[in-house]
């Protein structure tokens, strides 16, 4: 009986320790305002970890409230950091960051006549491009709250980039698609919070590119 009790106590203590560990960190699905299963899987792969610091969580509503004045005025503003993803344990992992800002339509990079090695375009929004170490999406925000006399609606630029470290568990050609798995999901959520019609022509997607 005493042995059984001892084993039970050890099991309970072990369970408590693991519960505490989970409480001190969050999963990939919790970061950047909440990720889909596909986007979360991509985040785990590029960072080579499954646990992240709590400050990797972001509030979509609070962020878009800060971005809306620039959007309503249709003026180019500073890029605002939406989230910075900190792996909880793996100090060698990269630190992905996602920014959004209002972009002058003339500053959208022109389409390239020939394909660039290490870069891929994706068929949504005004433009969506990903590379080994970053990804960009430009989408038009048509909304009753942002309509002005101009015939053109504001353009929002979303960017995923890395900190000082360039690759985590996945790199090369695989990383190109993983980056867009993440940015497409986050950009669609932000576009929805901003009230952009049809989420800025960013389709809902929960399967890998």
Task: Describe the protein's architecture and organization.
- The chain has 209 residues and is an alpha+beta fold.
- The chain is 33% helix and 16% strand.
- It contains 4 helices and 6 strands, in the order αααββββββα.
- The chain has helices at residues 2-23, 37-47, 60-73, 172-194; strands spanning 80-84, 97-103, 119-121, 127-131, 134-140, 155-161.
- The protein has a 6-stranded antiparallel sheet with strand order 1-2-6-5-4-3, with helices on one face.
- β3 and β4 form a beta hairpin.
- The longest helix is centred in the last third of the chain and has 23 residues, at 172-194.
- The radius of gyration is 20 Å and the shape is globular.
- The protein starts with a helix and ends in a 15-residue tail after the last helix.
- Mean pLDDT is 82; it is low at 1-22.
Note the main sheet: 6 strands, antiparallel
Order of strands, widest sheet: 1-2-6-5-4-3
Distance between the termini: 56 Å
Number of helices: 4
Poorly predicted sequence stretches spanning 5 or more consecutive residues: 1-22
Helix residue percentage? 25-40%
Task: Write down the Rg.
Answer: 20 Å
> Beta-strand level of the residues, as a percent range?
15-25%
Keyword list:
globular; alpha+beta
Give the topology.
Blueprint (H helix, E strand, L loop, with lengths): L1 H22 L13 H11 L12 H14 L6 E5 L12 E7 L15 E3 L5 E5 L2 E7 L14 E7 L10 H23 L15
Antiparallel strand pairs: 1-2, 2-6, 3-4, 4-5, 5-6
Helix pairs in contact: 2-4, 3-4
């Amino acid at each position: 009986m005493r042995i059984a009790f001892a084993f039970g106590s050890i099991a309970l203590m072990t369970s408590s320790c693991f519960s505490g560990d989970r409480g001190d960190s969050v999963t990939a699905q919790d970061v950047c305002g909440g990720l889909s299963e596909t986007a979360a899987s991509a985040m785990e792969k590029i960072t080579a970890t499954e646990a992240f610091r709590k400050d990797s969580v972001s509030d979509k509503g609070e962020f878009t409230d800060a971005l809306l004045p620039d959007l309503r005025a249709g003026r180019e503003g500073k890029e605002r950091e939406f989230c910075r993803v900190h792996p909880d344990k793996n100090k060698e992992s990269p630190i992905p960051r996602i920014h959004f800002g209002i972009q002058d339509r003339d500053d959208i990079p022109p389409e390239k006549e020939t394909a660039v090695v290490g870069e891929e375009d994706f068929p949504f929004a005004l433009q969506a491009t990903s590379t080994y170490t970053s990804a960009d999406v430009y989408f038009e925000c048509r909304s009753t709250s942002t309509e002005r006399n101009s015939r053109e609606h504001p353009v929002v630029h979303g960017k995923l980039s890395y900190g000082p470290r360039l690759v985590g568990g996945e790199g090369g050609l695989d990383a190109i698609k993983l980056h867009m798995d993440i940015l497409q999901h986050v950009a669609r959520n932000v576009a929805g919070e901003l009230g952009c019609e049809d989420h800025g022509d960013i389709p809902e997607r929960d399967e890998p590119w």
